[in-house]
Request: fold
Amino acid sequence: MTTAADENRLERRLAQADSAAGISFAALPKTGPAPVDAVYVHVPFCSTKCHYCDFYSLAGHLDEVDAYLDALKREAALQVHHFGRPRPETIFIGGGTPTLLNPAELERLMAILHESIDMSRLNEFTVEANPNTFDAPRARVLKAAGVNRISCGAQSFVKSELQTLQRDHDPENVPLAFEIARAAGIENLNVDLIFGIPGQTLESWVYSLDRALALAGGGPDHLSCYSLIYESNTAMTARLNRGEFTPIDEDLELALFEHVYRRLRDAGYQRYEVSNYARPGRECRHNLHYWKGGQWLAWGPSAAAHVAGWRWKNVTNLTHYLAALQEKDPQVPATQMERLSTRRRAGELAVFWLRLAEGLNYAEFHRIAGLDARPVLERVLKNYAELGFVSLTPTAARLEEKAVVVSNRILTDVVDAF
Amino acid sequence: MPDDILIRNFCIIAHIDHGKSTLADRLLERTGAITQREMNAQFLDDMDLEKERGITIKASAVTVSYTHPGTGQKYMLNLIDTPGHVDFHYEVAKALQACEGALLLCDATQGVQAQTVANAYAAIDADLEIIPVINKVDLPSARPDAVAEEMEQVLGIDALACVPISAKTGIGIDELLKAIAEKLPAPAGSSDAPLQALIFDSKYDDYRGVVVYVRVINGRLIRGQKIRMMGKNTIYAITDLGKFMPKAKPVESIGAGEVGFIIANIKTIQDVTIGDTVTDSAAPAAEPLPGYRPPKQMVFCDFYPGADTEYTQLRDALEKLRLNDSSFTFEPETSDALGFGFRCGFLGLLHMEIVQERLEREHKIEVIQTAPTVPYEVVTSDGTVKMIDSASELPDPSALLEIREPMIRASIIVPAKNIGDVSKLCQDRRGVYKKTEFITTDRVIIEYEMPLAEVIFDFFDKLKTVTQGYGTLDYDLLGFKVDDLVKMDILVAGDKISALSLIVHKTKADSRGRAIIKKLKQEISRHLFEISIQAAVGSRVIARETVSALRKDVTSKCYGGDISRKRKLLEKQKEGKKRMKQVGRVEIPQKAFMAILEPGD
Reply:
């Protein structure tokens, strides 16, 4: 196990990627005041780096939290100045591990958000929580700030599987975290689970899922069940390439996938996206904005925004992020600024929309993309429809249940169809 | 031209790599036509590709002057360069017709090879005086005496007449020049007779139009003269006359026995027929010279535009190539699977490869090439005989009486110890044994009659393998012969892929079919459904494979920061799919269409 070395290497590579980009930051698009649906905040601190995770985060570095919050505050101010004070429907604080911040730091984070964001329209405010670091004092701070949804990274209830993933929490902390959240009056709770972990079996997956469904308050309101992805630049992939373990067999993985769908359906949860399940009305609205062409601001290192047809991403390096947002003459740390053509944007939108169980409604699509998707999708999806993978009606196109596991193949034909 | 200068027209004939171009260069240098400094490259090969492959594709003619050191007699030597590969018999034949003599060049280390024999017989048939030359005598492994013996044994050429040389170091070149002057006959013909000039080659030049190479047999070409192509019955005015010495040099006239070139504002190479006779339009000859047989395309395949290539780009490139190669043909072709393309005819396999490489190298064009095939003679029930060059042209089986395929006489020279392997190879390819002749105690010529179709399918490679590279092959066409031939179709998901249909011998259908669909199975990626791949003769399926359905291809996690990245990933996958051809619901990679090109067993 060469955790530290892998981490350092990843760190260096990300820093190189940024410096290769020249660290000359992109100017924000001159859109004038832009209405947004959502705001994302990235908190880049973790106690350790999980081996499968390719989000930007730093293990330790907690002495930089204050500097980070200072920078975040300046970034928010710059954006408010540029786009106007956002009045989103949803806020999502992700990471990293937001709950690694102590209650005082969390309180400061909340204050910054309340200062920069008009909360009058807000109906979903999510914070990601690590079962190990989530406690009653933190829960109280969040609840007081208006947080009404907690997303808890359980991943598995089997210790050996958590170890394979290099998760640092004890599975027994998950039920505790749920009780704390419910006790604090936070009602809308999600758990993240991962399947396809090397060494996992159908039995162990059944067990994890059952444990998740038995969580306080009649189980979670929402579950995200991801199959393990070997992202490049992760320790997990490096270990795979070194032959430290064999990935699980395709048949087993399909069986696990099948099990999630059945078990959760029987328990009253709808699959509303490839990997996301919810009780009716508990779908994650924030994510739905991502998938249905919504507009959002994104603050913090590596956070990605989408406003007025522009996409950009903040610099993926805390040091560079802090350097950009110094007190004197701060600048927006945006990189990878891109504006998609109408057609490219339509292709992208259709791809992510079709991952939703509700399907792509042509009228709604037209309102957002300004294009009629029907002739295009009927052309490229005709064959798939004949094979029973897609349903085409005069008003919508929808992937059938059996298409979910092979959706990339179908969406490949959609992405450039417009 | 002053009467005291004697003319010698000759060519060099040899097996590939026996040093023909080097000898040509050495002769030019020794006669002072080019300087040492110009000698860096082989002068007569002017295409890159020729240099790399070590073969000469186009014939050229060069005029040099030579003074006999003993007698002081002046000579005009016209050297006509010829190609040495099996595919280019036709071009060799053209060159031979313009000469009175030939230098038969043989490598002192390798000895007599298949094309040494074929070329020698062609020269003998054309009634040329032959000077046998043994090259590379400077090499430590040279065995000039043994090779001279081989030449006598196989070709009936007096071993004592052989001139030992080294084109590389210059050994023997003076003796060879003397032999050319002394032994080769002067051209017959008279400059006073009506004009008869033989067209033996042509080239397209971007600035000057078509350059026509001629050998004047009788009469005289004069600048400004109005000429008539007797076969084509077209009239041109000569704007320029010249000779290559070796650089182009204008001349006022070219008399009987001489070689030179005509420029007459001729637009395309198709306006000139090789073998045609040029005469004076005001005072024409009574008869044209005996012509050549036109080149016969014996290998056909389709070229379709590959990725990033447009149909029109391919067409333009083919047209350009044809400017300088009148021996390949192309015509528009459409295929359900591959779209719009061209059916192309070539003299042989190497010729096909050369054209494809030139498309890629000189024109940056990527082509999808279908499996090569030979032409077939088809007899229908009403007695009509038709030539077809593709399995898709076969008439309905009910109307089909017989299919005849082209047969060749293959002369294969191999080390004696490989006789068994080579015989087995030929028999596997439906060869009928004719005879074996010993060249020396350890080398033989084996003769087989074989279907050409069996030779164009990886025969050369196999021959080289079983003989460790020593085997050489030459062949000539015998005609068409009926055999038990059937059409084999390839079906993917039930759809017939006409571009993959082929005509095979009944006994070969099973193994060939199995090999092809196995290859296809490797090339076709998994789809959302099971795909059957079948080889069928008529309605009988002779082999079957299945590509199982794709079971999992999904991106499970997709958050806001991922959207661009995931889109780019899908776009990249889509790029890959664009290089595929859609047949029904199945995407077949272009590479799969080459599956039947590759060795199967």
Summary: The CA atoms of residues 392 and 410 of chain A lie 14 Å apart.
